[in-house]
Request: fold
Amino acid sequence: MNVWRFVPPHFSHPVTNMAIDRVMVDIYKKEKMPIFRIYGWKPYGFSIGYSQKAEDVLDIPACIRDGIPFVKRPTGGGIIFHGDEVTYAVVCSTGDINAPRSVRDGYKILCSFILEAYRHYGLEPIFAIDSGQVKKERSSICFSSFEDYDILVNGKKIGGNAQKRSRDIIMQHGSIPLSLDHKPVLKYVKERITLSGQKTISISEAVGRKVMFEEFADVLKESFASIFGAVMEERDLTPEEKEKVEFYERELIQEKNCSL
Reply:
């Protein structure tokens, strides 16, 4: 039986969300049970790629002045503003998803459940590499360019995903916008670009109606179970695991990798 631990949907502070994602790796190493969780961001805020420096990509004084939090992700990629969206995180081994050791192939396999979720709405998602629209432009912003396995709908990028590997352990998380608001990016991100709907699309815009968090979270969970033949064992974080989350929160604060 392909049993996965499912951490039920919830909304947390950006720092807490990234601390939980780190704890998931620790849990997997201990329990050897793959984990899938779905979450939202409260308050909204930025996440910064592991190799980025906050001061290089963000107007930090403006963020602090306006109470806009930011946090560093354990994964790479560009800066993302997390607003009205559904975010997921997966921690597993290559064997859990029958994936080859190739990062590119494993990434494609893991993202297949997201394509399934989009197809639920009658959409026709495609990887950028299969569309001929790969645009590897240099940018500090995740949604301003296409990578090989970014997902497109109607020729526009919908969401973003990032992965980190440690031997055969995969940690991947991704952001899927329910609606898009470019104003925070234009106001607080240092890179001066014209960020418009020409490159990106939200699930609500693609579907043609407002899709709520609870609805899409359910579709995403069902798509994941269907694609991977997963039996979901729902378990929230234990008191011991929550203590570890608090430890990582303090670590992020001490390293000045976040702003509350």
The chain has one domain: 3-259.
